[in-house]
């Protein structure tokens, strides 16, 4: 089995590809809904509904795109041509979203979201699938996806700093919003070209194909994959819901509207220091065991947010500084779920190849992104609930206690609930480092036999 480390000349260009893509993650759910509600004036329910519809479309297109990614290869390999195709489409969608034209309405926002999310799906799945091919062994996948997450976090920090810089220079709210899109448009071409030129890509074997119905049966029987997908939904629900509500928490619960960008920046800065810890923990233990520890820590942090939120509602003077501390501590675990889910799924892809006879990294990562989008797609739902059930009105400078209690409850209780499900699922995961090593040896032996057979026929 090949335990050779991936060279840094591959790790860095691969990880850098996520930098422009990162504006479509957390910044989309943090900045875009609030901007279109408060500045464009579409209304919380309208914006929430549009994001839900766009996410439904996004989710429905994932499995077909994953199948296409696995089957429609090119002389360049399996991934490069899809990334090249997705780049200009993603640039166009970002330009429409972050530079809204005069008279932008619900149709404009909905169409722009469809374009951006469709191209993002193709780009994101291609990158994840490519990472599983570049890092063939257990620990190197942790290393590769950890570096990718660090670059993603640094990119998100940059996105947060840009509006602060624009504000410092006297820019308007619109200029702050435009700066996020401009960052992506400037960065995407050079980093994508760097990766396409430097990184190796290869075509997957098309041998030993199984009927698609049989393939679905194999997937359904893969209990480890089901557990990881449920864990991805749970972690994404927390990210999406809390991302949508974070600025509202700062404004209406802790009365620190002017500090909300700085708080989010502090959260991501702290998360950078957490990534090496989770990487080392997963290398020392098992990946799923590290995930369970991270889940318990996240639940503990949510309980701390609940406590300080209740204190803020009752007027405790120390709630703001305590909120800063809790946000920093919570940020330490931000990078754990994406690193571990993607690394675990890469191992499951090897197990699936052993059973299926074909490498289906595109399809399996499509299922992963589908579950992620289902989770993040819950974020617009909480905006609708906040408006309909708890009386949130963006036009009002102050909200009543019912809205504040509802805001705190949705921010905390839902996250705790889904993470309890995550812990329950991961407790039964059994694709360990030792079992994965056995799978790799079997795959290498089968591939060697196939190559010898092909050489004999020639």
Query: How many alpha or pi helices?
Result: 18
Unreliable stretches: none
The separation of the N and C termini measures 27 Å
Q: Could you give me the name of the CATH homologous superfamily? A: MFS general substrate transporter like domains
**What is the CA-atom radius of gyration, in angstroms?**
22 Å
CATH fold-level topology: Growth Hormone, Chain: A
CATH C-level name: Mainly Alpha
Let me know the number of strands: 0
Percentage beta strand: under 5%
CATH architecture: Up-down Bundle
Shape descriptor reads globular
Approximate helicity band: over 70%
Q: Number of folding domains? A: 1
Give the helix/strand class: mainly alpha
Main sheet summary: none
The overall pLDDT, averaged over residues, is 84
SSE string, helices as H and strands as E: HHHHHHHHHHHHHHHHHH
């Amino acid at each position: 089995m090949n335990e050779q480390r991936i060279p840094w000349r591959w790790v860095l260009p691969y990880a850098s590809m996520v930098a422009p893509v990162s504006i479509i993650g957390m910044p989309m759910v943090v900045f875009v809904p609030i901007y279109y509600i408060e500045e464009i004036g579409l209304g919380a329910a309208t914006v929430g509904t549009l994001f839900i519809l766009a996410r439904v479309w996004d989710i429905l297109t994932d499995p077909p795109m994953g199948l296409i990614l696995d089957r429609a290869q090119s002389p360049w390999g399996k991934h490069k041509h899809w990334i090249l195709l997705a780049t200009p489409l993603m640039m166009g969608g970002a330009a429409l979203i972050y530079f809204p034209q005069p008279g932008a309405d619900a149709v404009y926002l909905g169409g722009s979201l469809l374009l951006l999310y469709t191209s993002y799906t193709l780009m994101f799945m291609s990158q994840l699938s490519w990472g599983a091919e570049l890092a063939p062994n257990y620990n190197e996948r942790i290393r590769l996806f950890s570096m990718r997450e660090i670059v993603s976090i640094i990119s998100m920090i940059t996105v947060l700093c840009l509006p602060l810089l624009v504000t410092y220079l006297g820019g308007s709210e619109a200029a702050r919003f435009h700066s996020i899109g401009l960052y992506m448009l400037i960065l995407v071409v050079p980093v994508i070209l760097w990766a396409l030129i430097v990184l190796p890509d290869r075509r997957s074997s098309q041998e030993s194909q199984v009927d698609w119905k049989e393939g679905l049966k194999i997937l359904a029987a893969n209990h480890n994959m089901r557990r990881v997908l449920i864990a991805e939904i749970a972690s994404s629900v927390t990210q999406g819901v809390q991302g949508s509500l974070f600025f509202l928490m700062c404004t209406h619960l802790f009365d620190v509207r002017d500090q909300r960008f700085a708080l989010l920046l502090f959260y991501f800065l702290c998360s950078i220091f957490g990534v090496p810890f989770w990487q080392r923990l997963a290398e020392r233990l098992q990946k799923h065991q590290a995930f369970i520890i991270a889940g318990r820590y996240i639940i503990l942090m949510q309980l701390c947010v609940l406590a300080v939120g209740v204190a803020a509602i009752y007027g405790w003077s120390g709630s703001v500084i305590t909120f800063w501390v809790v946000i920093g501590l919570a940020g330490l675990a931000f990078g754990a779920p994406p690193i571990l889910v993607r690394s675990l799924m890469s191992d499951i892809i090897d197990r699936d190849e052993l059973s299926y006879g074909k490498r289906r990294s595109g399809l399996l990562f499509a299922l992963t992104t589908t579950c992620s989008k289902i989770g993040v797609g819950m974020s617009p739902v909480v905006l609708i609930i906040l408006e309909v059930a708890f009386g949130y009105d963006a036009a009002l400078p102050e909200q009543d206690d019912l809205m504040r209690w509802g805001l705190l409850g949705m921010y905390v209780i839902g996250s705790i609930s889904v993470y309890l499900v995550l812990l329950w699922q991961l407790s039964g995961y059994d694709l360990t480092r030792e079992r994965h090593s056995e799978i790799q040896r079997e795959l290498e032996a089968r591939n060697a036999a196939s190559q010898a057979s092909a050489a004999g026929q020639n």
